[in-house]
Design goal:
This protein is α+β, with helices and mostly antiparallel strands. The protein has 2 domains: 16-228, no CATH class; 242-370, Cysteine proteinases (Cathepsin B, Chain A). The chain is 22% helix and 22% strand. It has 11 helices and 21 strands. The strands form 9 sheets. It has a 4-stranded antiparallel beta sheet. A 3-stranded antiparallel beta sheet has the order 7-8-9. It starts with 22 loop residues before the first helix and ends in a 19-residue tail after the last strand. The model has no long low-confidence stretch (mean pLDDT 96).
């Protein structure tokens, strides 16, 4: 099976039928069809200079059943469509005054801006959702970035992530809801599109900003960007097994029983981290990676990883430009190892964003493995989209 091919389509700013389906929101009449009347409103095409605080909509928010979620308030009913309609009437964009820049971090945020000041043509998604859309920069959140990366290529997790943000396009009213799952209950967290400009993270396409929304949501839930790490997959309806240790004695059994089953048979993914400098030889020390695939050919066992820096900076055997690939037939490279996937343009040249490495090198630096899988607590209404098929019309 290996890493699934997802069939996401481009999202239209004028046709909400093109959005990923969110069956949970349909229950509250706030799904994609309910947004069609907003998209046809000529005022929705404009940006506005005046703002209104989110907290000023107290009565509306109370009607959406607020509950505490760690460090923030979430809602059992998605408020973002109702809020967008009211903001359109007043011709003011919404500022989330419950999570202002002074609350974003334990260090001072000197630079921040709305997405419409960062980009002249902002788009939540430019070409749907991909593992290689985003990258970690100066913020020490490699575990968080790798978690989102692993979910983005997980056969059950991809659509749950893709449909989590509404609206699925740039909202000139400045507000978005993100669906999270807490102890089996669906909740919605509101965030605005004012983002830190401190090189915390980056999008490959400067017009795209879906990852900024996800990142800000979990910063809000956890009380600041400095509190982002791994382990947040549960909020998307995905659980993780405990780590299974890899030793010299069990390495072949672990390959057959775990790596082949997790990645090749199920197409599942995970994320893992390296240890200290003295124990790390091939990868970056004290750093997390998304582990997304495994393959074997002619007794060659390889593991595919994605560095949250979005660079394939592994340089040993079977690195992207190594001579070892010369002994592998082109057809095998294309089918078994899918080497033409997860690439993007750098100038005029297409470069790989993931890399393969020998299994023995992997286990030297990361002597463990785990598996991300669909949670048994996933609400029934979301099971209809927890697959790798398209959820767009």
């Amino acid at each position: 099976m290996s890493t699934p091919f997802f069939k996401d389509q481009d999202i239209s700013v004028t046709n909400s039928d093109s959005w990923p389906d969110s069956p949970d929101r349909n229950i509250w009449n706030s799904g994609k069809k309910a947004w069609s009347s907003v998209l046809t409103n000529p005022d929705f095409k404009n940006d506005y200079d005046m703002s209104v605080n989110l907290s000023s909509y107290k009565e509306l928010l109370e009607s959406c059943q607020p509950v505490s979620l760690n460090k923030c308030i979430a809602y059992k009913k998605d408020p973002v469509l109702l809020l967008t309609r009211q903001a359109l009437d007043s011709k003011k964009y919404i500022v989330d005054d419950t999570f202002l820049p002074k609350s974003w971090s334990d260090s001072v945020i000197n630079h921040h801006a709305r997405i419409n000041k960062i980009s002249n043509t902002p788009a939540l998604y430019t070409q749907a959702l991909s593992l290689i859309d985003f990258e970690q920069e100066k913020l020490g959140d490699c575990g968080f970035v790798s978690t989102i990366g692993a979910i983005s290529v997980h056969p059950e997790g991809h659509n749950l992530l893709f449909s989590s943000i509404y609206p699925s396009i740039y909202n000139p009213m400045g507000l978005y809801s993100v669906r999270v799952i807490s102890e089996g209950e669906i909740l919605y967290v509101l965030v605005d599109d004012d983002f830190p400009r401190e090189s915390y993270s980056d999008m490959v396409n400067s017009n795209e900003f879906w990852f900024y929304i996800i990142e800000k949501t979990f910063a809000k839930i956890n009380g600041g960007y400095q509190n982002l790490g791994g382990g947040f997959e549960r909020y998307f309806g995905i659980d993780s097994t405990e780590n299974h240790e890899i030793t010299d004695a069990n390495r072949n059994d672990v390959w057959d029983k775990y790596f082949k089953t997790i990645f090749h048979e199920k197409g599942h993914t995970t994320y893992q981290g390296t240890g200290s400098d003295k124990n790390t030889k091939y990868l970056v020390s004290a750093h997390a990676y998304a582990v997304i695939d495994t393959a074997e050919w002619n007794n060659i066992k390889l593991v595919r990883l994605h560095n949250p820096w979005n660079v394939a900076n592994y340089e040993k055997e079977f690195s992207p430009n190594s001579k070892e690939w010369d002994s592998v037939p082109d057809a095998v490279q294309k089918t078994t190892f899918q080497r033409d996937r997860f690439r993007s343009l750098s100038g005029s040249k297409e470069v790989p964003k993931t890399f393969w490495m020998p299994y023995d090198y992997y286990r030297h630096d990361i002597p463990k493995i785990s598996e991300l899988f669909l949670s048994a607590k996933l609400p029934a209404v979301l099971k209809s989209i927890a697959h790798s098929n398209s959820i767009q019309k």
